[in-house]
Amino acid sequence: MADYNVIVIGAGPAGYVAAIRCAQLGMKTACVDKWLNPSGKPSLGGTCLNVGCIPSKALLDSSHHYYFLQKQAAEHGIKFGGLSIDIAAMLARKNRIVKTLTKGIGSLFKQNKVASLEGAARLTGNQAVEITAHNGNKQTLTADKIIIATGSIPTPIPVATIDNKLIVDSTGALAFDSVPKRLGVIGAGAIGLELGSVWSRLGSQVTILEALPDFLATADRKIATAAQRELKKQGLDIHLGASVTSATVTNNEVTVSYQEPKKGEQQRVVDKLIVAVGRKPNTAGLEAAEIGIQINDRGFIQVDEHRQTSVPGIYAIGDVIGGPMLAHKGSEEGVMVAERLAGQKSEMSYETVPWVIYTHPEIAWVGRTEEQLQAAGIEYKVGQFPFVASGRARAHGDTSGMVRLIADAKTDSLLGVHIFGHSASELIAEAVVAMEFQGSAEDLARTIHAHPTLSEAMHEAALGVDGRMIHA
Ligand code: FAD
Ligand code: NAD
Which residue of 161, 170, 325 sits with most ligand 2 atoms within 8 Å of its CB, as the best mutation to test the pocket? Predict the structure, then answer.
């Protein structure tokens, strides 16, 4: 008999959720993780809780408060003197949030009777996992099923080598001990825009170098254009089509050289440089290929539609299999795999995975863009409502952006919803639910929305699909 019904490797949002759901369904479950925090202590929650979603949002909120007080409070009649920023206190707050939440996963494991094992896991075949503890001790455990959830790590680029002093990845950029006067960012993706925003709000002059010619190439074009304009107003100097050729450290500065369309060779001297050009699957030391698990040419573990690898009984979920590298996508895959192991017929719908970028205002979307629909030859109608016409947005003092709702021209079913605006991360949930229930624009148009709320913009955009908006 195996030691466990299930061993989950990795306690990020994919792995810890899978482990809890397996245990809830009566399986004897262990979850092994090797993460050590900066003090050398094991810490659950993976990238998301330790150096990703949570600490970045903590700093985004802190920096937004500072920016608001500095630039917008006066408009509300709030006057004060001597505003200052204490970066050490801001980082300490972020670290406390991380500590509370990562410890919380430990409590959830206890509550659900998941055995939490500390150390690095290696697959040795025949459903066995060798675990090397942080003190070097080894043990081998067996399981009927194994779920790999080893996540991802930042992608390095040869032209800008991380030195963790002046040139950093996202982890380093969450821990600057002072505000860099001049900050360079390579990559205008989610990390570049979020962490670029944090330090820009705190006073850095931020230059973002993006290789692609289009801003946020996968987002709706009108939303991307509006967001780019707004972020520029906030001080983010975004260069598109910029190809970085070198980043050289001299005298405590980094000289970044890049080629820009029409301008040719350019240089920027910065005090810190963040490299944020994507993340790659983390399979180091796992020895997955050695036991016959197929890995694709980009290093992602290959799985079937129910996340089983090429080795029967071994599954993989989260960032390590690719697709959207998002915490909630990994968590839902964890639930699906756990429930299927328990004999249920759970499925996951990838068409309704929401995307959010936590700039201010936020950018959020679900479903397809106009460009994707055009390419697929699908006829559609669009309803668009600007927040400038929303009473609640006016009260907030945050009127930039809009909701764009796309419905099938023939059936009226919702195909995509794209939002740039205050609280877009919360507003998008309504669209996700409506799409998950295979709703139509008319369903949202006939749904009563409280007044005054930002969600009325969703209602109006739904009315707009049929040309009957009231407030615009
Ligand atoms: P991970 O969270 O990477 O966890 C993998 C775990 O596996 C780690 O704990 C690691 O220690 C462990 N592990 C790896 N190999 C082994 C081994 N051999 N043995 C034992 N343990 C092992 N996503 C969002 O949805 N929203 C956001 O707002 C968001 N913000 C982000 C901000 C930043 C700065 C970054 C970097 C990422 C952000 N992400 C966000 C992405 C999100 O963090 C990832 O998609 C998510 O963490 C992936 O979850 P995972 O469980 O697949 O992997
Ligand atoms: P990303 O894929 O979101 O963006 C990377 C950007 O870098 C892209 O625009 C890409 O074109 C650009 N790029 C690539 N190589 C380049 C080069 N050599 N020079 C200049 N630009 C280059 O990746 P990220 O921002 O590093 O984030 C990593 C992952 O973490 C993403 O998959 C993202 O989904 C996830 N994440 C999500 C959130 C969120 O959900 N809010 C926040 C942060 C990170």
Answer: 325
**Which ligand 2 atom sits closest to the C-alpha of 325?**
32
Active site (annotated) includes residue 451: yes
Can you tell me which atom of ligand 1 is nearest the CA of 171?
A: 34
Residue nearest to atom 14 of ligand 2 (CA): 277
Domains of the chain: 4-154+280-348 (3.50.50.60), 167-276 (3.50.50.60), 352-464 (3.30.390.30)
Give the alpha-carbon dihedral of 454, 457, 458, 462, to 10 degrees. 160
pLDDT tens, residue by residue, 153-207? 999 999 999 999 999 999 999 999 999 999 999 999 999 999 999 999 999 999 9
What's the gap in Å between 45 CA and the centre of ligand 1?
8
52 touches ligand 1 (CB under 6 Å): yes
* DSSP assigned state of 354: -
What ligand is nearest to the CA atom of residue 215?
2
Q: What is the pLDDT of residue 470?
A: 98
> Distance (Å, rounded) from C-alpha 410 to C-alpha 402?
24
Q: Which residue's C-alpha comes closest to atom 28 of ligand 2?
A: 278
Question: With pLDDT > 90 as the criterion, what percentage of the chain qualifies?
Answer: 100
Residue 242 CB neighbour total at 10 angstroms: 24
Helix (H, G, I), strand (E, B) or coil at 263: coil
Q: What is the pTM of this model?
A: 0.98
Measured in Å, residue 267 CA sits from the centre of ligand 2 at: 22
What's the gap in Å between 275 CA and the centre of ligand 2?
Answer: 9
Long-range Cβ contacts of 390-397 (<8 Å, 24+ apart): 390/452, 390/454, 390/456, 390/457, 390/471, 391/451, 391/452, 391/456, 392/452, 392/453, 392/454, 392/456, 393/421, 393/422, 393/454, 393/457, 395/452, 396/422, 396/454, 397/72, 397/75, 397/76
How does pLDDT run across 297-329, given as a tens digit for each residue?
999 999 999 999 999 999 999 999 999 999 999
Name the active-site residue from 65, 134, 451, 471.
451
What is the DSSP annotation of 370-407? HHHHHHTT--EEEEEEEGGG-HHHHHHT----EEEEEE
Ligand 1 centre distance from Cα of residue 149 (Å): 9
